[in-house]
Design brief:
This is DUF2384 domain-containing protein. This protein is mainly alpha-helical and about 70 residues long. It is about 55% helix and about 0% strand.
């Protein structure tokens, strides 16, 4: 789990790009898809109000935790 105090939507965006090894198009596509780990919500929507939730999901994905 990635924990950052005072994290922002920009932090979540950067983490998504890192998740996709620098591929911004893949990160953007993922951010706009519904995510089971976010209760069917899209990461792009969640990160505007709670970027830590998106960072947590990315951390789980990086560690192979099915969410």
């Amino acid at each position: 789990m990635v924990e950052r105090k005072g994290c922002s939507a920009a932090d979540a965006w950067r983490a998504a790009i890192e998740l996709f090894e620098g591929n911004r198009a893949a990160a953007d596509h993922w951010l706009h898809q519904e995510a089971v780990g976010l209760g069917g919500r899209r990461p792009i929507d969640v990160m505007e109000t709670d970027p830590q939730q998106v960072l947590d999901l990315i951390g789980r994905l990086e560690h192979g935790v099915f969410t």
